[in-house]
Amino acid sequence: MQEVLPEGGMIRKLWIGETAKYREHVLRLDPESRRNRFAGGVSDEFIRHYVDLTSGLDAVVHGFFVGDTIRGAAELRPLGLHFARQAEAAISVEKPWQSHGVGSALLRRTLLVARNRGFRHLHMACLADNRRMQQLARKFDAELSFDFESVVGEVESSRPTPLSLMRELMSDSHGFATAMLDLQTRMLRV
């Protein structure tokens, strides 16, 4: 599954030990992008706690990397025990990488993982004025419902197939190999 991304960029799953990279990405979001991601203004302290919480849940996070820096991310997190077949997706992309297909590629990867985990419904909430996220949700055939000052998009997922499982396995294998090569390169520089 080869996405068309800005030159030098790639999408891969975040591995144990990369929480700090994810936190740095979210902290770098400009005020508008941060507001859109969290449906309101949030402090740096909130983000620190949020990222720590995310790493402790069953969340799957994919990052859009340029070099070894995350410039975009997509989270997939189950909606509790009572909604085991439902999950929530959230996407954040730093301003210079918006409108370059990064959000679409991140959502595509998130939908694949949701499918392979058996999530039948994927929820995406955004502010009513977040047109970018609404367009992205529509691109993937989400049903949008408007509620006060927010919009909820729901995407139904297919059942996993041997091919979808293989696609995720191949993406993860490639991403893991790349992460290990990046780590080795950084260690050799020291």
Layout of helices and strands:
Elements: E1 9-13, H1 19-28, H2 31-38, H3 44-56, E2 60-66, E3 69-79, E4 83-93, H4 102-116, E5 121-127, H5 131-139, E6 143-147, E7 150-156, H6 162-189
Helix pairs in contact: 1-3, 4-6
Task: Describe the fold and architecture.
The protein is of the alpha+beta class and 190 residues long. 44% of the residues lie in helices and 28% in strands. The chain has 6 helices and 7 strands; from the N terminus they run βαααβββαβαββα. The chain has helices spanning 19-28, 31-38, 44-56, 102-116, 131-139, 162-189, and strands at residues 9-13, 60-66, 69-79, 83-93, 121-127, 143-147, 150-156. The chain has a 7-stranded mixed sheet with strand order 1-2-3-4-5-7-6, with helices on both faces. Helix 4 crosses helix 6. The N and C termini lie far apart (34 Å). The model has no long low-confidence stretch (mean pLDDT 82).
